[in-house]
Amino acid sequence: MPLNRLNSFEPGLVQDRLAGLGYGSVTALLLNGALGLFAATPKNVAPDPEDPDIANMVKLENAIKIIFALSISLCVALCIYTTTTFTLITIYARTALGMGLQSEAAAFFENVQYYRKTGFHSFLGAIFTFKLGVVLSIILRYDMQDRLRWVVAAPALVVGLIGYHHTRNMMRLASSLLYSKTKED
After folding, report:
1. Domain interval for residue 46
2. How far is CA 171 from CA 36, 96, 168, 174, in A?
């Protein structure tokens, strides 16, 4: 039941809705992981070599470094947005409740629906870019001529892709089972 349809204050429902805003906490942890991963991964772009035999490998290595840096910088930006969004929503909703402004808290929660949705999408983007960064970091930690780096990165890539597929399936289920009924009520 949407908060703005409550006839009387139901603290359990409001607390459940506020607890659902835990994306900010999870994303703050993800942010820490992304910054640590960025610091620990070699990312300096190498100059083009004179030796044509390794020129393509160096170009590939440089491309991986650039994609890694972009992935982690995007992850950090998405984490900051998600954490800030859900933290502010939680603070303002709890402040209103603490002041005894239950209907205003419910109205606030409903009126920030757009920000909750973009915050959630930002959360998903942060997870995706972090997973990509992990795979690329594994690759970059091995010498570019060492084929083992592709073998070691493969499980992380496979699990990441399976996780992405499962996440999309869960979102489809939630959309069809939960949110379609909310719109009908």
Report:
1. 11-184
2. 29, 30, 5, 5
**Overall domain count for the chain:** 1
Within-domain flag for 2? no
Q: Is residue 20 part of a domain?
A: yes
Q: What is the pTM of this model?
A: 0.80
**155 found inside a domain:** yes
Instruction: Considering only CA atoms, give the Rg of the chain.
Output: 22
* pLDDT tens sequence across 54-70: 888 899 999 999 999 99
Task: Count the helices and strands in the chain (H runs, E runs).
Answer: 7, 0
One-character DSSP codes across 96-151: HHHTT-HHHHHHHHHHTHHHHHHHHHHHHHHHHHHHHHHHHHHHHTS-TT-THHHH
Alpha carbon distance 164, 175 (integer Å): 16
